Amino acid sequence: MSSRARIACFHGGGSTAAIFKFQCEALQRTLFDVFEFVFFDAPFESGAGPAVLPTFSYEEYGPYRTWFSKDREGVLRRDGRGDDERGEGGIERVVRLMEEEGEGGEWVGCMGFSQGTRVVAGLLLEQMRLREMGVPGLADGEIQFKFGVLCNGGAEPMLAELSYPSNKDLIDIPTLHLHGLTDKNLENGRTLLANHFDPRTTTLIEINYHHAMPWHKEDLLKFSGALRKLYTNVQGV
Question: Does residue 183 carry a catalytic annotation?
């Protein structure tokens, strides 16, 4: 059984855990001595997302999946519930999936790509609100994220099932944000960062890249080095 610290990983819309795992292969090799990356599948089927085809064919990687269903007007439901508005909410579902992984290293962080950053932001926001109420973390305190990583982000967090009163408007759990300067969705990531995260606890890396995880050696080392540094800084917090 691995004793490495675990990072929960959430793929983009119209993708899958297998695709995101492939996209993160170089990052996993670089940080193998520190982290175990655990990849989760979204609950709802969808069409292929940006930059998925033709590399990741439906025959090999489908069905593609999304973290959000649509309501009767065709608008994505921010709470992650199904289109029947019943069942567990998105944050509740993700926490359950993590619990079902069983024993292993400590869950120290969560990482999302594109739509998956909305899941990460929602998890961190929920943890922060619970702590204000005296609960140390998610899953009755069993999951306590020390940091989040948001790559080529979406525009707003997933909403938890219940709304808690809060004295804080911005997420202050330490985060690392990766933005590709040629990403067509760059403004979404900038909006998420500006509107929902405390600038005192964020680190931003910008690379000359499109809507993808870092692959070129220089970008990969810059990103992985920042993640190592972030983890070092939050240990013991």
Answer: yes
